[in-house]
Amino acid sequence: MATPIMKRIASIALAGAASSALAACASIPGANVAPGTPITAAESAQGAEYHPQFVAEFGGEMTGPYARYVDQVGSNIALQSGLANSGDAFEVTLLNSSVNNAFAVPGGYIYATRQLVTLMNDEAELAAVLGHEVGHVAARHSARRQQAAQRNQLLGLLGTIVGGVILDSPELARLSQQGSQLLTLSYSRSQELEADQLGVQYLNRAGYDPKAMASLLASLASQNQLDAQLQGRGDATIPEWASTHPDPASRVQNALQLAAGGTGVTNRDLFLSRIDGLIYGDDPEQGVIEGRQFIHPELRLTFTAPQGTYMVNSTRAVSINGDQGRAQLSLAPYSNDLNAYVGSVFQKIGGDQQTLRPSSIERATVNGLPAAYGTARVNNGQQEIDVTVFAYEFANDQAFHFQTVTPAGQAGNFNAMYQSMRRISASEASQVVPRRVDVITAGRADSVRSLAQRMAYTDAQEARFRVLNGLSSSDQIIPGRKYKIVLRTN
Q1: Cα dist. 402→170, 293, 296 in Å?
Q2: What is the pTM assigned to this prediction?
Q3: What SS3 state is found at 420?
């Protein structure tokens, strides 16, 4: 059986292979196909080829009742597009990711993350999101953008995106890409609006309330706002690393206009019963973020990020972002030589275009862990910056490292974080349990405040509860109505 660390190394290797394969793909299936035309054999083949790589990049495929329900709704709404005559022609995948995201690829492959599903409040919203993604496929948006850009990459503008990149050098930009890559689409505003329009059409054809598109976009915009507040960011627009579809707030009114006069079912209670118990937020198997602390119970490690930064946990790395610099915790193959390990990370950051070496490699011990570190100063074309690699040995075949970028002379900004890395005991690891959605029925004595106090968070309980349930700042609890709260439970 593969260990967690080997799975993680395999994920990194797979993503690298995907990038190489995509760059080498010269044909663009669907680029010259009329919008609305049934899925072609070439598109199906392309989607099947890259499906495993997308699944690996986004935390893996979920199975069981949750996944079957999402597949059922997605296959039904996709049929309304006319792209295929059978629901079996579509592959609808629920991804084990804590990022609010959904996307689709040519060939009938549709994806939604469990985190986005937990943000929804009825089946019509689930159908709206999946219908929007099918709309992108039906309109051949990805293929047309790819053709227009003259880039031989699957899905057009498929790339590595991370928020707050401060490097302008293409060679050194790899530092901001490694470990937090999200294989993702980027669409124009007109394409997003067209996909919204098609999604609303599909909702109407399937008998759903077409206003679900607007209500879901509003919830996503509220979640973006809350995330910005919790992370101390002034900009509440959706960060690039978090979604394929930026700025949902600007699309709400348009979606309402598209839905004007339409009616249909929402299947709210059915939906809530089907997602009851779904993991919310980080999956402990991928590590969890608690305030400024990151804890990985399987890899048995923890560290604390500096004050004034916020963390993003992806399937392949943890990113630490702030005004004082950028950092990532990742790993690479290790052969019991920390100095060589640090040197290899620098070489990978520099890539083929530039030789990057630290001025020296120093040895240290951090909380009982053998460590090695080095810093290289580089001019990125606008200013001098310091690139630091700080590595730790956890076993003869296991090492982790931070790689950071700071303004020149400020490499010490992350010293406290480097010194906070430590092993955790089996007892500490066992205490890390996931948060899950718990669907409850409000009683006569319940209020927003009383239900919010049951949320498994120490901060912003009421704000989290309102966003999770699609409630405005003035909405009140309706006795007998079902609501979502988040609890800690195995």
Answers
A1: 20, 15, 15
A2: 0.81
A3: helix
